[in-house]
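**Sequence with structure:**
===
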Amino acid sequence: MKILTAVLTAAVLMLAASSVWAADPSGVWTIEGRLDASMEVKCHDGACRCAFKSAYGKYDAVGYFRDNKLALVYNYSTPVASNAFGFLVYEMQGDHAMLKKTYDLNGKVVGSDKWVRK
């Protein structure tokens, strides 16, 4: 009985650990509560490319995914009032949500929002 319990415990722990590593931001995302904004994320071996568009503009971003965080540098391809380029950090909140912080070139947080999978 002890061996069976140990084997079952090990199996449950392996399943739980594998789900932590299974998170992948690839797919289409939108800002919670907004219908005009979407971002397509494509990751391969931890390297990611993103294409964002909204009613206000669009940008491309590149970066890396590691430890449930997607770190990107972005550059708007349309005129914007401020922060034409900078850094984004998305933190996965399960498989269907991410929290995003936008940083300017000085490392100051200039925005944050929640993203959900489409």
In short: The CA atoms of residues 44 and 60 lie 17 Å apart. The two ends are 46 Å apart (CA to CA).
